[in-house]
Each structure stands twice: as structure tokens, then as C-alpha cells.
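Exercise 7b. C-alpha cells:
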């Protein structure tokens, strides 16, 4: 598969990476996500689907500590924008409702929360991103999210986590892969940009099983973005307790980079990769500890992809 000169100029790294996609989409402006905690809960924690949550989850582990301490939504947005301007010279922002299940509330309440977050410097906001579970999406909520698409790009992120119901059951996910398929059917012709989030490295899933995730992503054209995560074990999670008692094999960085090199050629080339790995706060991380900063991990993986000559989607042509 040939990579065009224009693609190279846009920052193609062997995969369709989100940074380059953002620069291209917003004409070189520096666009950053502002993570906010809307104070939502999760049906897999409050008992409506289950208690205790998914076994790998400690909500705090994927919320930056700065967002956790900010008291109000307004302050989180203002402070998040300020940090991104100072630290990253950000020009524009995507408001990202990340922790917990951000469509798990009555629609009028969701509207109030999204409206408030988007009302702060709307001229500098280009997008709204909402993370949720596939079983917490319905036509009314999709219509609400679509109502923002005349002013903002709206990205709906759903946890796929695994394509295997046995895994979803083992991790106490409280929903099935069929729930995701139903949710994807609901947004088939919608104006929303759909992102799915996956986790690789459950010790009972083989490499071949994990590579099959690509087929499942490819078969839904409405999936525009993906976030790939390696399984990491954090404090405050059920898996963390089990791991400390009885540790199991997790990816080394080298193994994970090689796995991604095998996976990416199988993924449709138009799918934009928002993330290749996950990272939790150091104080919460139990394993695997790759002893590198986020930028160093990214660099290592990018180098591996480049040195192996990997091109996303090349196995499909
Ligand atoms: S991973 Fe998401 S769905 Fe699972 S318990 Fe945590 S917040 Fe809830």
C-alpha cells in the first residue's frame, strides 16, 4: 500500500493517528481535549446493572487528578483550558466528559450539563466528546447529542472492551457485545463520530483472539475512531486485589508494541487511532509498570511501527 505525499506531510506514522487528523481537520490549529467530570455515576456501580464495577476499573485511575479536585463543571472547563493553553499552547478545545458513564442520567439533565460546559468560551470550543457504555444509549440521547452537531463536532465514545461475551462476563462488564452492536445500529446513520474503546491483554484471550477485534471494528463503517488500551491493573479495582494475590502475565512494552504492529495492518485505513495505549496515574498503577513517561512509550511504539514498516490497513488491500 502506497502512502501519498500529502499523507506524509500530515504526519502519517504508519497509522492514521489522531494528532495528525486533528491538525488536518482544524487547519493546523492546536486542539486539545479538556477532560471534565460531570459527576455522573455508572449503572455497573450503583446496582442497576451490577455492583463493584468492571473488575479492571477504578474510575479515579483514568481521571487526571487535577479534574478530580476541581469542584464545579465551570471551574474544570476554565482550569482545563488554562492548563492546555499554558502547557500546550492550545488554540481550541474539545470538551471531554470522560469518567463514569456520561449518558447515564435523564436527557434533560444531560442537556443541562453539556450546555453548561459548552457555554464557556464557545468560540474556542470545536468539539464535544462523551464517554459512555453501549447499554446507556437510546434514540433520545442520540438526538440530544446530534443537536450539537450544527455547532460542534460530537464524538460518542463507547466501551467495546472485548468482542467476547465470555470476557465481558469475566470482567463483570454488565453488558454484552450484542449491546454494543445494538448501540452501533442506533447510530448507523447519525451525525455523531463514533469511537470504540478496546482493552488488549486479558490473560485468557490469545493473540489470535485479540487480532479478531480488527474484523469487528472493520465491519461497522460508523466506527470512525478507536482507542486501544493494554490491560493495566490499578489500585482500587477488583482485578487489582486478585492480581496482588495471584499475579498473571501482562504485556511487556515490547510485546505490546509488537502486538500493535500485527494488529494495525488488519484495521481499516480510514479508522482514526485516538490512542494506542492507556496510562493511569503512577500512584494508582500496580502493573505493568513500563517505567517510562507517556511520551517515551508513544515514541517507543511509533519507532517500532516505523522500523517494522507497518501500514494500517495494508493487510486488507
Ligand atoms: S469501566 Fe466504565 S462501565 Fe465499567 S465500572 Fe468503570 S465507569 Fe462503569
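Sequence design result:
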Amino acid at each position: 500500500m502506497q502512502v501519498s505525499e500529502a499523507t506524509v506531510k500530515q504526519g502519517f506514522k504508519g497509522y492514521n493517528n489522531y494528532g495528525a487528523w486533528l491538525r488536518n481537520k482544524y487547519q493546523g490549529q492546536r486542539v486539545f481535549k479538556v477532560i471534565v467530570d460531570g459527576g455522573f455515576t455508572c449503572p455497573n456501580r450503583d446496582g442497576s446493572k451490577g455492583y463493584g464495577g468492571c473488575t479492571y476499573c477504578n474510575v479515579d485511575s483514568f481521571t487526571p487528578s487535577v479534574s478530580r479536585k476541581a469542584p464545579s463543571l465551570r471551574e474544570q472547563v476554565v482550569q482545563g483550558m488554562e492548563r492546555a493553553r499554558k502547557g500546550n499552547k492550545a488554540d481550541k478545545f474539545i470538551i471531554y466528559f470522560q469518567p463514569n458513564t456520561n449518558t447515564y442520567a435523564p436527557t434533560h439533565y444531560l442537556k443541562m450539563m453539556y450546555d453548561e460546559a459548552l457555554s464557556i468560551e464557545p468560540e474556542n470550543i470545536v468539539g464535544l466528546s462523551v464517554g459512555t457504555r453501549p447499554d446507556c444509549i437510546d434514540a433520545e440521547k442520540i438526538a440530544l447529542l446530534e443537536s450539537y452537531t450544527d455547532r460542534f463536532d460530537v464524538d460518542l465514545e463507547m466501551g467495546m472492551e472485548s468482542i467476547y461475551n465470555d470476557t465481558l462476563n469475566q470482567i463483570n462488564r454488565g453488558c454484552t457485545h450484542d449491546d454494543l452492536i445494538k448501540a452501533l445500529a442506533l447510530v448507523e446513520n447519525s451525525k455523531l463520530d463514533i469511537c470504540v474503546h478496546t482493552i488488549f491483554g486479558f490473560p485468557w484471550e490469545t493473540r489470535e483472539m485479540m487480532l479478531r477485534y480488527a474484523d469487528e471494528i472493520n465491519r461497522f463503517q460508523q466506527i470512525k475512531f478507536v482507542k486501544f488500551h493494554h490491560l493495566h491493573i490499578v489500585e482500587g479495582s477488583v482485578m487489582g486485589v486478585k492480581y496482588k494475590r495471584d499475579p498473571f502475565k501482562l504485556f511487556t512494552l515490547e510485546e505490546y508494541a509488537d502486538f500493535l504492529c500485527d494488529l494495525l495492518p488488519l484495521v481499516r485505513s480510514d479508522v482514526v487511532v485516538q490512542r494506542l495505549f492507556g496510562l493511569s496515574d503512577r500512584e494508582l498503577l500496580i502493573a505493568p509498570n513500563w517505567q517510562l513517561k507517556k511520551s517515551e512509550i508513544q515514541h517507543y511504539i511509533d519507532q517500532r511501527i516505523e522500523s517494522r514498516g507497518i501500514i494500517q490497513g495494508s493487510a486488507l488491500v
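Instructor comment: The chain has one domain: 5-316. The pocket of iron/sulfur cluster is lined by residues 42, 44-45, 53-54, 57, 59, 100-101, 133 (CB under 6 Å).
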